[in-house]
Amino acid sequence: MTTTLGALEERARTRNGEFGEDALIVCDSLVRIYQSEGIEVQALQGLDLLVERGELVAIVGASGSGKSTLLSVLSGLDAPTAGRVRVGPWDLMAMSPRQRVDYRRRMVGFVWQQTARNLVPYLTSAENVTLPLALAGVGRAERTRRAKDLLDVLGVGYCADRRPGAMSGGEQQRVAIAVGLANEPQVLFADEPTGELDTATSHDVLEGLRTANRELGTTVVVVTHDSGVSEHVQRTVAIRDGRTSSEVVRRTHTREDGSEHVVAEEFAVLDRAGRVQLPREYRDALALVGRVRLALEESHVSVWPSGRPEPAPDPGPDTKHGRHREQP
Ligand SMILES: Nc1ncnc2c1ncn2[C@@H]1O[C@H](COP(=O)(O)OP(=O)(O)OP(=O)(O)O)[C@@H](O)[C@H]1O
């Protein structure tokens, strides 16, 4: 049968939009391969991630899972080997060096783990916040006003005239958030902002990020080892072996009596190629290695170890994969 023009037009009309077209941040099948002394390291292995405007998202994962590589790509410091990455209107794969500077100056802000990387040691907090504003050509009165407002919002207004050496690690990181927000970026990236802090101080810094998100509407992406982070964010995305593997989404529910409680729900992530990572505990518990049997049931998909006897047939649709069938 030949395909008619009408059928092609109909298909074009009904085709799904571009992956993540409404999202603020789109990572589509991102690959980053490093060559080091003749050895190839695949830091990102087809990572998909969407972040909506106004979200506060944490990215967690074991050491070496690819978190910092992802943040380097998103911040425009590094280019992926393959895939597609877009932040707002910026296609990060197709930026000129000039556009890259513009992107880093206007679209995004940063908070790094090392306080020394965030703040100039011989400037006061207020001067640290006004520095990026001066570079962007903002007038003196406006710079002073904005620095004061930001330091106040982040609860470190009392540190305005102190240099970093006269502040605690937590205070320095909250000032660093103010510096990152100075030019009103649409997205704030934070890489292990609590990595050098104790639990109580980490709490204040994570709350600072939440304040930036809630009160200023900035989209925040924070990369961290800190297992306590999920209490401070709406969504926690776990990366394993260079891919998004699971997500925890926190929702606030209102009971009948009007009181509120937070429910955290964990999801596995099914990527665009149909891959899903089974948690290690599940694989270990059922000795799932190599080949597995899959079966499409009416409302779910089942996974069995391949060595086990064939599962009893289910009354659902007859679409079984990896199942032995009698040849005629
Ligand atoms: N410049 C590089 N050259 C070679 N390999 C690299 C480079 N940067 C990272 N890698 C490798 O890529 C993988 C991912 O590293 P990445 O730093 O992104 O992980 P991470 O999750 O941020 O780890 P950590 O939490 O320890 O910072 C690791 O195996 C790492 O050794």
From TrEMBL:
What the entry lists under SMART domains is as follows:
AAA
GO CC list: plasma membrane
Decide whether keyword Nucleotide-binding is in the record. yes
Which residue stretches, if any, does this entry annotate as coiled coil?
none
The ABC transporter domain, residue ranges: 25-266
- GO MF annotation list: ATP binding; ATP hydrolysis activity; DNA binding; transmembrane transporter activity
The family database entries (InterPro entries) matched by this protein are listed as:
AAA+_ATPase, ABC_transporter-like_ATP-bd, ABC_transporter-like_CS, ABC_transpr_LolD-like, MacB-like_ATP-bd, P-loop_NTPase, SpoVT-AbrB_dom
Alphabetical list of SUPFAM superfamilies matching this protein: P-loop containing nucleoside triphosphate hydrolases
Provide the transmembrane region boundaries: none
Compositional bias, Basic and acidic residues, is annotated for 317-328
Q: Which UniProt keywords apply?
A: ATP-binding, DNA-binding, Nucleotide-binding, Transport
Show where the SpoVT-AbrB domain sits: 265-308
Instruction: Outline the segment boundaries, as ranges, of region: Disordered.
Output: 299-328
Which residues, if any, are the signal sequence?
Answer: none
Protein name in the entry? ABC transporter ATP-binding protein
Name its species: Cellulomonas composti
